Amino acid sequence: MADRINPLKRSFGDMITPTPNPHVGSAPDVPNTSAGENPASQLPVRFLTPRSYQFDVYEVAKRRNTIAVLDTGAGKTMIAVMLIRHIGQSIKSSGHRKLIVFLAPTVHLANQQCEVIKDQTGFEVEVYYGAKGVDEWNLTQWQKEIDERDVLVMTPQILLDALRKAFLNMELIALMIIDECHRATGNHPYSKIMKIYSIKNRAEMEEYVPSAKETCKFYDKPRFNASDLKARIGASWSKFDTAIMDLQGSLDTGYKDMEDRAKELRKRLSSDHSKIVSCLVDLGLKCAYEAVEVCLQKSPKSYEECEMYREISLQRKYFLEEVASMIRNSLPLGDDYVLDPALDYLKAVDSGYMSPKLYELLQLFLSFGKATEVLCLIFVERIITAKVIQRFVKKISVLEHFAVSYLTGTNTSVDALAPKLQREVLESFRSGKVNLLFATDVVEEGIHVPNCSCVIRFDLPKTVRSYVQSRGRARQHNSVFVTMLERGNEKQRDQLFDVIRSDWSMRDTASNRDPEMWTPKACLLDELEIYIVDRTGASVTADSKLPPSAIFHTLAGPVCRNQQLAKQLACLEACKKLHQMGALDEHLQPVSDEPSGKDLMLKSKEASAGAGTTKRKELHGSVRIRALSGSWGDKLDGVTFHAYKFDFSCNVPSHIYSSFVLLIEAKLHEDVGNIELELYLVGKKVNASISSCGELHLDSEQVINAKCFQELFFNGLFGRLFTGSKAARKFLLSEDTTLWNQSYMYLLLPLETSCTSSADSWSINWTGICDSASAVAFMKNISVFACEGDRIDQSAHTSGSSVQEPNDSLMINFANGSANINDVNEMVVLAIHTGRIYSIVEAVSDMSGESPFDGNSDDAPAKYSTFAEYYTKKYGIVLKHPRQPMLRLKQNHNPHNLLVDFNDEGMLSCAKKRSSIVGKQRQYAHLPPEVLIRINIPVSVLKAMYLLPSIMHRLESLMLASQLRQDIGCSVANFHISSSLILEAISTRRCCENFSLERLELLGDSVLKYTVGCHFFLKHPGRHEGQLSSLRSYEVCNSTLRKHGTDCRIQEYIRDGPFDPRRWVAPGQKSIRPVPCNCGINTLEVPLDDSKFQTVDPNIKVGITCDMGHRWMGSKTVSDSVEALIGAYYVAGGLVAALHVMNWIGIEVELDPSCVSQAIASASLRTYIPNDDEVKSLESKLGYAFTEKFMLLEAITHPSMQEQGVNYCYQRLEYLGDSVLDLLITRHLYENHKNLDPGELTDLRSASVNNESFAQACVKHNLHIHLRHCSTLLLSQITEYLKSSDGSIEATSLTEALGDLVESIAGAVLVDTGLNYEEVWRIFEPLLSPIVTPEKLELAPYRELIEFCGSLGYFTKEECVSKGEMVHATLTLQLDDVLLVGEGFDQKKKHAKGKAASHLLKQLEKRGYSRSGAKKRKHGTDCVSASPPESLEKGDVNVITKVKIQKTEENDMLALPDGAPSILSSSKRETPVIESINMKKGGPRITLFELCKKVQWPMPTFKTSEHKSRSPMEVDDIGGKRTAFNTFTTKIKLNIPWFGIIECDGEARADKKSAYDSAALAMLNVLQAKSQLIITNK
């Protein structure tokens, strides 16, 4: 008969199709659970059809509390799921909020059952265990889970804690399922839950859930007599244990930390002895030797410990080496004898190489044959047994086809496996990658491995549970369960029989009892001391643990009959006292000022992309500038404005710019309306002076003309005066739609050129303004011009019909009049057919309307023979004076950002850009006078108008800053903060200004850290340093600052994008570059709590504002601006002003003098035993005499003194001193390096504020001799540091205590002086001097290498390998023609990489590469641009073009350190392979960049040339064809080491970046053609 496949052995993920049941029938015929209700119909489609015995249990469980006793694999989870679905549906239909709780004893099981329930029910299910941080949750977080979840799957301790703290209660739980309920004994959480709150169709189950076939494997007693070796090992252990005891006795009794370490090492030595002897007896000599090797590998790292610890550690090492020698000498045939493929196993057993028990195990493995599908689980009792046997089996050649591993628990043992490694091993076993798995009882329960075919109990099970559960791991059909027994060992036999008998007894009782006959019995619980909070019901029992951070030191418990109970009752009394003192809240949680769970989301898994992080992006709105709003647009009786005059002075005297006046309804603050700016043009600089000129009244006619002037010129120069398509164009200013908005209203009007710079003597150029209004009226009156073909349905207009033809040949006919030919130079004109504004350069006598038309394409046939024909056919304009000379006109251009000094950048790219602009031939237009309207405006007005966008952008920014200053308010006496300083605080680096918030942010961070630190120090005198740090960390973290900032709407003020003059519009101007709003919000403000306005999508671009004022912004930007504002107010008004703005933001900080006095008074009451000489010595070194001497005593007391009964230490003062020194040093650097780049300022602070620099100051001034401690480890560390204080070793943990001492003394001085931090600086500035300067700043070698190589376009590769206690780091750097290799060794990976980088930097210096450029942040002659025109597009990748550097003549030499790998020739190097080329915009460049990085080729260089045409050309592009007047072609050059230089040209493209892409694509194709690259999917 064919073997029957067991359907219940499948995982729930495989249960796709219901399986027919011959005993039950199809699902519709399953007996109903109630009238007309089919249980199967409640199940989802994927659910396996239940068996009848499962329905029986399910029916009983629906009616009452039930214990389901079923074999492993019998489908208990299915019954649970059925019950969950049934109860869950009832809960939903009832409308009452109830929960279903599923308890699983281990995290593995909890995760497994959660997935099953979630997949099979469709309910909201979540899993909870300690590693997820649930232990720290409060009521708010639990309430959120209760509201959102239907089923809570958790480990029992989580439920127990939640019930005790009254976060959950039993009345809320409708159904509780306890998996593996047999554990509910003793002190297990299951038992505590039960204490606190008060199958019959066996044949069918056997058929569908067949048990594994049970058998016994007998082995002989050991033949090899190891008693002598065992005795010698014991003697060795006794010897070295005595040695350790002697060393321990020589310790100073005051150093308890060393005593504890010595005890720990003695325990390790005893454990090693036990492990080795166990393996020797049970497994044989070879495995005992392996056990020694395992113990040696697990030796503690002692290189960071004191000399005494290292000496004791050596005793353990000597013991293991001696035992290894003993065992090796007992192996007459050598320790590799068992590895021989022709091994005589019986001989190996006789000689003691392996035990008979291990021999029989190997025979079982050999019986599996060569089958690699075998999954065998071997249970052992000890971790060392699992590790040793798997090492042994791996070395047996005849078993090499089996993959072998081991799996143990995550206890505190040194042999335990990490949880991640556990999961990986278990998954490998499930998937068949591992065949033989040696395991302890960690996998006995609940682990689902459906294909496990064999389970071997190498060591006997000690309990029924262990026996049943381990047998149940054999899940495959026809699986076997093997128990190994020693022949003739009656003790083992009786032990196994007792286990089997208990199993059958339990099974028989559960199977034969009548489920309908049950009698409830009172549960007799042991009396347990308990304390209950009346208000919430939270409870704590005698076996609860005392919460951390207790606020009292001693408490005497009641007298008890045993030590354990006495400890428990003492803890209970402590909890009562803590609650009564207010240290525990109503839920018996520690009282804390830390935020609620809702605010602690940053601690979750999403913290890396949570609020306040760089990765998260948020949509924010913009605030309207109140000063720019006005309601004067429709007033008929005139308007009174505040006037602000703009005067311009150019450093080139021949360049004249007309003055302008800004008319605005609001009065600007003094530091906004009276400023000076420098505007940077190509080759020249213009100084702009803005001054207030009082008030000015305009009548209604003047307002109309002024608006008309503004509409004409701003649209004519920077926009378009015609709208619509070519077939239906309309004059913009003749449309009914208004171009003015009340929220953005001001006038910019030209002044008479005769006006002086005095604010009292000026007048508006009303002549030019009125003439501009006449030009607009003229444009409105003329007809729409006819176009060629059928693109317009209106008749043509003869422009000259209204103009009388002059008789004088020197007169020029314009569309609206005539002028002398000698007066036309620099005249401003308006083209009636295009709406463009020009200035006349000259009249061209040899060109007229009858001249050949020069606008035809070179390739296309001529469409127009003359200019006259062109205007007639194109625009329907008949030239009445075609013979008069044409006019050469200077064309208008886009406005530029004139606020950035590109002439002083020192950037390679900008230099190229300037040179190209200077040498660029100016393009002129040639038009007949009859199509031009002359406007009586001087050309200096036109030139000045190109300055206005930049000026108004700066003015609007200052208005924004002034508005924020007004919102903040500050009534501090003699305090004023400038708008420019606030503007700096709200401007990010992305604005591309010569200032940004980063410097102020750095200072504000220190101010915030100091003030919040002082606040918590004074407010919580009973809290230790860890609690204070936790409170401060939350209050100053980016997430909290971001919340405070958004609550104050600071995000609406932030400037986070570069000024784009092309998008700037004046009132009355229509934008020609709109950015429509796609977010669906019609207001400036964006809802902060809407998740659709939060993203981590890297494709979302920040800094681009839509027309509604919305823009995506990095979440961290808000918190950065908050810190910068604090820094700005501190700079302007000191600590008082900073505290004001902090309180306005919502950071409630108060430095109450009474709290300071209380802290000093508290110190005066503490016990102090004076040592006058020591105190005077220390005070003389500091130059300060303490008022309260105990403050100094506390500052020099190390925490180790608490072991001697001292109940104070320096940690609280160190916490305070750290923040005050950070502030003082940061302020010093900020004030003394005003022009320093923010990044380098940060480096200076990092180099100055750290334990290493403080430790050096401590040693330099002999402060360390005053440190009071009782730690041998610390004494050893200080001694070693003093020996290496010359800088010969890198900073390690040795410096921590010395640095802490300096900080704690600073904190003591601060408190003793009443928070006078200026006095702290007076004392500590000479102690810390010299403070590092930019010239002496040394970057870490690894960072310097990375920055240096990045500046040159080279790539490095790193490889780190652990070799014992050392890490070997190898860094390779590929130059154009040589591969450099640097190596480093150290105990720590970071230091090893630093040493390797140092070697590479030295090699670079030998080859003529200067390292100075890598240390500079400011762009200079040694640096290159961060984003030159040839580089990749920002946002894709940052690539730096290589700078030409003088090299030595040693380029052909290859300097490699000893032992470094040899360089492969190009023929031996593997050809790189890429899957495909990214063909999106920027994609080819990214592909080429990633290729160069992968194979360490130097980055390619790009050189672009431009071709201009007067007629449009059709150009290829990635997205298709494009029409353009200019095309760009890029040449690319790539140097491939050991191959040569490859150059190629890209195709012509319409823009530079597309040209780069084309060149990169061409290079990739050439690389493939030259066999230097393989593209698998081209």
UniProtKB/TrEMBL annotation:
Residues 1-41, 1409-1428 are annotated as: Disordered. Residues 360-516 form the Helicase C-terminal domain. SUPFAM superfamilies: P-loop containing nucleoside triphosphate hydrolases, PAZ domain, RNase III domain-like. Residues 31-41 have a biased composition (Polar residues). PANTHER family: DICER-RELATED, ENDORIBONUCLEASE DICER HOMOLOG 3. Residues 481-598 form the Dicer dsRNA-binding fold domain. Gene3D superfamilies: 3.30.160.20, Dicer dimerisation domain, P-loop containing nucleotide triphosphate hydrolases, paz domain, Ribonuclease III domain. Residues 57-194 form the Helicase ATP-binding domain. Belongs to the helicase family. Dicer subfamily. It comes from Linum tenue. Residues 810-936 form the PAZ domain. Its cofactor is Mg(2+); Mn(2+). GO terms for molecular function: ATP binding; helicase activity; metal ion binding; ribonuclease III activity; RNA binding. One of its GO terms (cellular component) is cytoplasm. Its main location: nucleus. GO terms for biological process: ta-siRNA processing. The keyword Iron does not apply. Residues 961-1134, 1175-1314 form the RNase III domain. Keywords: ATP-binding, Endonuclease, Helicase, Hydrolase, Magnesium, Manganese, Metal-binding, Nuclease, Nucleotide-binding, Nucleus, Repeat, RNA-binding, RNA-mediated gene silencing. SMART domains: DEXDc, HELICc, PAZ, RIBOc. This is Uncharacterized protein.
